[in-house]
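Appendix B.2, paired examples.
Example (i):
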Amino acid sequence: MKSWAAIVCFAATLAAVPASRAPASDGKVPSERIDALVRDLGSDKFATREQASRRLRELGIVTRESLERAASDPDAEVRLRARSILAEVRASDFEARVARFLADNEGSGDNSLPAWAAFSERFGSSRLVRELFVEMHRSEPALLEAMADGTESASAALDECTREILDAHLESQMDLGTLASLLFVGSDEDITVDERRGVQLYPYVVHSTYRHHYNSPLWTAVLKKLVADWLVRESTPLVANQNLIFAAQLELRPEALEISKRVLAEKDTPTNTRVVAIRIIGHFNGTAELAAVEKQLSDATTCAKTEEPQSAETQVRDVALLILLRGTGQEPGAYGCEAASLQENILVQTDQPIFLDDARRQAALQKWKLWREENPQAFED
């Protein structure tokens, strides 16, 4: 049995060994020879243990399976040496693969990294894109390997990754590789994203990506589309409401309009989300989406109330009519809309009612109906 002092001494010695001393093997070493070297990690002779460690590092990645088994060996020193050598071998192999991957600009060789096929299909294979993908692998290799294994593995890995980040309160410490990996995997429609994690973590992901990398060439090349793809994916009403607001804040017009039109078409969309979608269509002057807004004129659900200067309520159809009037170039005041509700920024929901009473509301709706009869081609349904 080796002493713990010897083990500590070994750990210090190993830490000083440079990764360059782990060249890749040609893969022709018999497995029996590798297993014998692994057994020598538990030798009573220090020189034998050191020689076996050195040789295993030199053989490289072909020793992985044997070292993985030895990592749970009953002998403490065998476990320590096996785990340390395994980490070094994996790191050395990864750097060699990265070098080949970055050098293979034509994609002519078998120099890919896990999930690269799906990533390059969406973003191309420029040097900038490749370098980002390497950063993603440095930060979240397990997540990307799971992505390459299929949707079930990727869903489980994403759930584990997001849980660990939230549990450790690392939301504000995510680097570019982690941000891009979470967006890449999370934006896949076939991947399951836990709603709680989507609401709690992805706001940090979206805001951090935008705030820290908006002025980077990567924003235009990759990151903007990654964010956009996450925002427009099918999601729960709670996440959809959140993503609607993000899309508007980041001025992602096509994505904001797409989400708005989708949530307005869904029967179970919460009132608040429905109103946000209507206002966003108005904000981005979404003429093609006005037909979806017009369908909300039958929704008498109350979305806001005020008591001063008199009691009044705002209904979903009031907001819809206001956006329709603006979208068709008409003057809302001519329909009896209150001036206080006609602020320039339509995204901001004012406390002021659009109509002071139902009589004015009904008169405005009737006037709109007559206008539509006279202008049936104002916008396409």
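Example (ii):
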Amino acid sequence: MTPTQYSGWINTTSRVLERFFSDQSIAQKFVLVTKEDMANALSYLQDLITDINTGLFDPAGPLNAIDEAHFHLIIRRILENFDKHIYEMYQKPVHGNGTLKPEDLAEITLGNEYDVQRMLYSLIRPIFPESRVEVTNDGGYKGYRYDIFIDFYETVIEVKCSRPKMAERTLTEEIGSDSYHYLAKHIYFFIYDKEKIISNVDAFSKNYSKTYDTKQIKTVVIQPVSVI
């Protein structure tokens, strides 16, 4: 295990301990012992398992805790069904007894990636309040800005929106650069292909959903049925 991988393992494990134990000193002590060597870290975790089995600790987290697998399931559902939110909220005929007017909703349009980011974030933050936008990360050579960052789950969501006269190749170059420079464990590329420049959405999404180094990358492309 390389020093970078070891550091990543320490960070991930300490976050899991913080989430599932009310006593924060458990995670803090884990970080301290791991600074010495991995043998101490493994011994500490083994002792912790023994204490749990003997009933010394209750490792159960809060009832509303969302584990990593369900977190990614929720994120994928939000991204893959983004167009359904647009339809239900802005395009579907309004109820006659409501106060919302079709002409008012029609004024809300997605003109660029900042608009898409705002709408997407409004769907994510009620579920994951700790998520943040426009987070700057030091990439060494220069800083990089994460569109949406959920620190606890080590996840970045990069939002892109196609523009008139934009080439598909431009998107692939941006994804390649971001995949290389972004440091998060999980990276989602959410592409709102407003101009429908991607010729084969299925092939594009599959090609740019992969494991790169230690990063898990998932690409989701939405092409609107009608441009808004």
